[in-house]
Amino acid sequence: MFKVLILAAGKGKRMKSEIPKVLHRLLNRPMISWVIETARKLHPDEMGVVLGYKADEVQKVLSEDIKVFIQPELLGTGHAVMCAEDFLNFDGDLLILYGDVPNIKAETLEKMLSKHREESNSMTILTAFFENPTGYGRILRNESGKIVSIVEEADADEETKKIREINSGIYVFKATHLLNGLKYLRNDNKQREYYLTDLVKIFLESGQKVETFLVDNPREIAGVNDRIQLAKVEKLLRLEINYSHMLNGVTIIDPESTFIDPEVKIENDTVIYPSTFIYGNTTIGKKCEIGPFTVIKDCKIGDNVRIVQSNCEDSEIFSGTSVGPFSRLRPGTVLKENTRIGNFVEVKNSILESGVKANHLSYIGDSEVGENTNVGAGTITCNYDGYKKHRTRIGKNVFIGSNSALVAPLKVGDGAIVGAGSVITEDVPDDSLGIARSRQINKEGWARKWRMKKEKEVQGLNPEKEDAKKK
Ligand code: UD1
Ligand code: MG
């Protein structure tokens, strides 16, 4: 049997936050979820977490299969594990992870587990060499290089503090040995805490095998204690995602300023321009151009789509379509093949069939727009009467003249034309002209006469000009 226990009772004082540390977000998901996702890749039979500070809030983000143990008072990492005693009584291995070390990789843990099993250890400790080991427990070894103990920073003398090999806090235990060992932990140290790390000595004294496993990339065990470290770890995770897309054939012009959520899928030869944010359950096809300055969330995007300086949410964008600059697609938008959505156009809960153009300054809401219809600049579908939303149905090959208001519920038939500047309140039949505005009159010569009158007025009222004339 194999289980994983995640320690996450700490408040995270240095975060200066009312939110428990492990709920602070990395790429839009709580820190603890990263650890859980990684642990799941190891296919444990059971997973547990030890919670303390605002445990109920943390529990809300955990799925039901995860066992929760409460540590009522933070008396150290050893005590945290004691609080999960019921979880430890089994024949097999237990992996201990931290909720605030989110960048640990499943491959590393797998290698560590294999070593633990091959060597039949009671305890295997993940260690690393740090340039600056301050704050961490140090790995003490004897002349033959065998680990003898872990010394916490608070209890270390000057010589020990110089040791650069540190304890990551990640371990694999033989569960029964751990359960038994916990009984011998004492809090007779500087911090008055029950140190899980004291098990090294306890195990060695009773002849059990303790070994270490050195992590290749020390960044994997970077912990998050304050918001600077939060940003640093997020950047690591973000660059990893960006680089993996790049290795799959996506061009990312500036990986440092590109934010892509882990579940996003992008096909090859798509180019992502700087300052672009692609969130949630989004898929993007081949040869698209996305960005710059674009936010996309939960969208399904085909091939050869171009989206510039725009916001798109919960929308479906078919191949060959162009969006932006400065467009907004709100939830429920479907843009079929080769549609054009231009600057300052907002679309919501609407289907635009292939070839539709809405190039400038429009609002299209709760509408259906048929194939190859042209929606002129400034067209507004008036979908809301103050109480209810209504639908606008526009047929195919329609021409909606600029600055028209289409008052829903409304149907404009196939091939119809709406005259510019109209307020359309009644259905327009197929192939008809719908026009609703007052007729134009031209008064010939009126402008010239009016200007002459104005000139005289101005001259009469300008004494300086009169003076100049006299001289
Ligand atoms: C611990 C190790 C130290 C190691 C360091 C790595 C001990 C005694 N020391 O340090 O050797 O270098 O981790 O980061 O184990 N937690 C609880 N309950 C508690 C205390 C801690 O759940 O009572 C959790 C925290 O939420 C956190 C993790 O355990 O996720 C580590 O706690 P932290 O206080 O940061 O570690 P240290 O004890 O300082
Ligand atoms: Mg501590």
Descriptive account of the structure:
By secondary structure, this protein is of the alpha/beta class. It has three domains: 2-221, Alpha-Beta Complex (Spore Coat Polysaccharide Biosynthesis Protein SpsA, Chain A); 249-434, Hexapeptide repeat proteins (UDP N-Acetylglucosamine Acyltransferase, domain 1); 445-471, no CATH class. The strands form six sheets. The chain has a 16-stranded parallel beta sheet that branches. Strand 8 and strand 9 (147-151) form a beta hairpin. The mean pLDDT is 96. The structure holds uridine-diphosphate-N-acetylglucosamine (UD1) and magnesium ion (MG). The site of uridine-diphosphate-N-acetylglucosamine has 27 residues, from strand 1, helix 3 and strand 10.
Number of spatially distinct domains? 3
Average predicted confidence as pLDDT: 96
E-strand count:
39
- Which CATH first-tier class of the largest domain would you pick? Alpha Beta
Backbone shape = elongated
Name given to the CATH homologous superfamily of the largest domain: Spore Coat Polysaccharide Biosynthesis Protein SpsA, Chain A
- How many angstroms separate the termini? 112 Å
* CATH architecture annotation of the largest domain: Alpha-Beta Complex
Helix content: 10-25%
Small molecules bound: uridine-diphosphate-N-acetylglucosamine, magnesium ion
Tell me about the largest β-sheet. 16 strands, parallel
| Radius of gyration, taken over Cα atoms and rounded to an integer in Å | 34 Å
Number of helices: 10
Task: Give a topology summary.
Blueprint: E1 2-8, E2 25-26, E3 29-30, H1 31-40, E4 46-51, H2 55-60, E5 66-70, H3 77-82, E6 93-98, H4 106-118, E7 123-129, E8 138-141, E9 147-151, H5 158-161, E10 165-174, H6 175-181, H7 199-205, E11 210-214, H8 227-247, E12 251-252, E13 258-260, E14 265-266, E15 271-272, E16 276-279, E17 283-284, E18 289-290, E19 294-297, E20 300-301, E21 306-307, E22 311-313, E23 316-317, E24 322-323, E25 327-329, E26 334-335, E27 340-348, E28 351-352, E29 357-365, E30 367-369, E31 374-375, E32 380-382, E33 392-394, E34 399-400, E35 405-407, E36 410-412, E37 417-418, E38 423-424, E39 433-434, H9 446-460, H10 463-470
Parallel strand pairs: 1-4, 1-6, 4-5, 7-11, 12-15, 13-16, 14-17, 15-18, 16-19, 17-20, 18-21, 19-22, 20-23, 21-24, 22-25, 23-26, 24-27, 25-27, 26-28, 27-29, 28-30, 29-31, 30-33, 31-34, 32-35, 33-36, 34-37, 35-38, 37-39
Antiparallel strand pairs: 2-3, 6-10, 7-10, 8-9
Bound molecules: uridine-diphosphate-N-acetylglucosamine and magnesium ion.
